[in-house]
Each structure stands twice: as C-alpha cells, then as structure tokens.
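User: quick one, sequence for these tokens?
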C-alpha cells in the first residue's frame, strides 16, 4: 500500500501543531496530560508572584499559579488561582503563603 505525498504532509503538519501546542504549554509550566484541581486564594499583596510560578508544599512542587486577577468588588483584594495536582490532598485548614 502506497501512502500519497499529500497524506504524509498533512500528517506531519498535524503532528507539528500538536508538538507546538504541547511545547508552549510545557514552557509555561502547565501539565496538559495530568489533571489538576483549582483553588482560589485571596491576597492583599502579591509582590513578585506571576502566572506559571510554581506552588510548593514543604519544598516539593505540587502545582502552578494559573491566573492572577484583581477583585472587581474590592480593588484591595487580589484573587490567585492555583492549579494543584489531583493526587495532592489539601486540608481545609491549609494556609497559602
């Protein structure tokens, strides 16, 4: 069975686009293969915190900062979305610093 040139080119383009998407998300620190839970934390001040910054528990990376937004109701509050691995169990009394 002979595969046409057009099919080979189409397959390589699709494969390249998938690799580009995965590579960009990898460089941003996101894990597109594994699943995560989202947690929202409210801060008054987030000096050097940025999107894609790692989240650590006792020195072990368990997730990344997914989004940082200003609270529309109170401009003195900043809402930070954390994407934490599903395998990590966060107790209700946990404090994010």
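Assistant:
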């Amino acid at each position: 069975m002979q595969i046409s040139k057009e099919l080979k080119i189409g397959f390589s383009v699709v494969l390249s686009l998938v690799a580009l998407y995965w590579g960009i998300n990898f460089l941003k620190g996101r894990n597109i293969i594994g699943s995560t839970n989202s947690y929202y934390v409210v801060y008054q001040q987030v000096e050097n915190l940025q999107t894609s910054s790692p989240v650590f528990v006792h020195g072990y990376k368990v997730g990344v900062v997914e989004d940082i937004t200003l609270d529309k109701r109170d401009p003195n509050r900043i809402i930070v979305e954390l994407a934490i691995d599903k395998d990590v169990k966060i107790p209700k009394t946990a404090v994010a610093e």
